[in-house]
What does this fold into?
Amino acid sequence: MSDLNLPVLDLSQLDDGPEAAARFRAALRSATHDVGFFYLIGTGISPELEARLHRAARAFFALPEADKLAIENVHSPHFRGYTRVGGERTQGQIDWREQIDIGPEREAIWAPATGGSPRRASDAASGRGEDASAPEHARLIGPNLWPKAQPELRAITEEWQEHLAGVSRKLLRAWALTLGAPESYFDEHFGEPSTLLKIVRYPGSREAEPAQGVGAHKDSGVLTLLWVEPGKGGLQVERDGVWVDAPSVPGAFVVNIGEMLEYATQGYLKATNHRVVSPRFPDDRISIPYFFNPGLDTRLPLIDLPAELAGEASGVTQDPANPIHALYGENAMKSRLRAHPDVAAIHHPDLVAARATV
It folds into this structure.
């Protein structure tokens, strides 16, 4: 592992006594201040669970096209379900991948109107047609779309997410301490987490030049844990202006922070550009990112850093075309509308029109 381009951290050190826990926290702070990315081992995720999820992912993408398109995300105002190859965009450019998006399983509180104003889902069902009073980001709340041909997918993904939620909370508590805040800081300010699980397949490309599996970007939330199919590469991280490879490591997740943690620390921690280069045909690649973010209605406050850390905070990256919002729901809706213009045009034309006039 010493030849890797990213540091390797062992989460189990947090349970090995005060000295080991302190070493882990110091390594965590250093990795996310300097790089924004690291490998994480010692998560307690069993190889058996990894293998079951991997098989389920492969089985989903092997379904007949009709079964996948039956749950295509154009049917979901909440941006859930299947995205066909070429159906998502990064920085306006087409990503060459297919995927299924799975969020918290909730009852919808909003539904598109028919030729009028948006309505609450309960009103739409009852035919009352009252205007929705919920904020824009409430449109992201709703049920998932599950493939009828693969009923076992729901159970395995729920088990996976339960494990990763625990890992995420453990990391956030470690970050809080190493940033000079109480251990419970993120628990107190996070609200009900807004999570997203993507199961992604990158088909092989026949292009002479490397194709865009997913374009260069920073994640819009707080924390991402990425599982990559063993033996596969393609993920690249920008370090000092150079793209470096971050191949899969057995038993490890690739972890990175998002723009909101950079915002909360005023640039002491770094959200880092990364991308995926498509594999060469006939090879393909499975990856499964899990995004652990604050509640949609949560405004993550700035952390009062100790003086020695505050002096090393470089400020938040400013991009007028891609502002970072303190309220997570605004970041999430911004990202969804940009990434899936077809879903936006079908279900949220009012939001598209409003942003076009800004």
